[in-house]
Amino acid sequence: MNLFRRITSQPHFSKITKRTYKYLKSPDQSLEPPLTHGIHVFHSPDAVGIVAKLSECIASRGGNILGADIFVPENKNVFYSRSEFVFDPRKWPREQIDEDFLTLAMTFNALRSVVRVPNLDPKYKIAVLASKQMLSADFLQRYGKDIINIHHGLLPSFKGGHPARQAFDHGVKLIGATSHFVTEELDAGPIIEQMVDAVSHRDNLQSFIQKSEN
């Protein structure tokens, strides 16, 4: 059974987010073990056919996509994706996986294409930030791993410092926090999860801050 989930933004987000959706599919019960779980992260200039080629790359080797998050900011000409898939390592060896995704990356002039197979690869770390410090492009490239930031505001609105004050000044009725992947652009990476709380005219700036940080 296929499940297609479309994530729609609130009205004041609609001009900022061009395209964001999540596709989830239950694993094919006909596939027998041993299956191995893989994760692919892709960042390239936006172009027609990326999703089709990504799906073809995995399916042509007998793999099965379990989930794919796609994010394309409006007027940025940038494409981000994170795909989770299962595959039989006997049919798709680890070295061949790297070669196939490298071919995909070269086809679309990708800025980043990373494949991880947790059961086969060495352990890696994911950094989590809750900081006002902005990381340089040079640091992100040298670090080479996923970094997640916790922003005390509802992105893509209210980027940068003092998001609760920005929300208070705009008189919004929903505030919260956002976890997202860090990119070179401030608070512009793909959104992972958001927590939302309601506010009203009875709330003051301090209660805005408390609700967005709790």
Automatic annotation (TrEMBL):
Annotated Pfam families: Formyl_trans_N
Residue ranges of domain Formyl transferase N-terminal in the record: 130-211
A GO term, aspect molecular function: formyltetrahydrofolate deformylase activity
E.C. number: 3.5.1.10
GO biological process: 'de novo' IMP biosynthetic process; one-carbon metabolic process
Protein name: Formyltetrahydrofolate deformylase
Broad enzyme group: hydrolase
Superkingdom per UniProt: Eukaryota
PANTHER family: FORMYLTETRAHYDROFOLATE DEFORMYLASE, FORMYLTETRAHYDROFOLATE DEFORMYLASE 2, MITOCHONDRIAL
CDD domains, sorted: ACT_F4HF-DF
InterPro entries reported in the protein's UniProt record: ACT-like_dom_sf, Formyl_transf_N, Formyl_transf_N_sf, PurU, PurU_ACT
Keyword list, A-Z: Hydrolase, One-carbon metabolism
